[in-house]
Amino acid sequence: MSDLDRLLTLLATRSARRGQFTLASGAQSNLYIDARVTTMSPDGLALIGPLALQTIQQHGWAPDSVGGLTLGADPIAYAIAYASAVAGNPIRAFTVRKEAKAHGTGRRIEGPFTDGDRVVIIEDVITTGGSALKAIEALTAANATIVGVLALVDREEGGRDAIEGVGYPVVALATASQIVSRMA
Fold it and tell me: Could you give the CA distance from residue 49 to residue 77 in angstroms, rounded to a whole number?
């Protein structure tokens, strides 16, 4: 079984649930994918970091840093940063707060991000694309050059089109249909 197959199986068995759910977008769905159950587990992180790094490299994006809107993007960005260090080509990770904090430095982007970085925006699950677009807005204001958006899961509900519609390429490691096909 390939690493991608193992990741799809983890997502199907741990993160995907059937029922009635209200998504972050406000939409109703009979499928909920809580990617954090996979992205915050040791075996999930061990698979996601190298697979995501390989995907970034295959697309020729060559970022200085990776990250996205907290909390969903955080463990994925950290896994990529770790995998990149192990591979000998370090990529820094950052997180984007939903709002700038009212104390301390008042920053909206936390971590070793540097204004002007080439970045890949990370998403755990793309539904409408709203979280990625918020991260893009914050990073554009910080003079980042956004080279692409990498999602763990694309729910295939229009989010990819919304992001690509404003000019950014989107790649997903998995789709909702791939995950559903593996659910018991």
Answer: 8
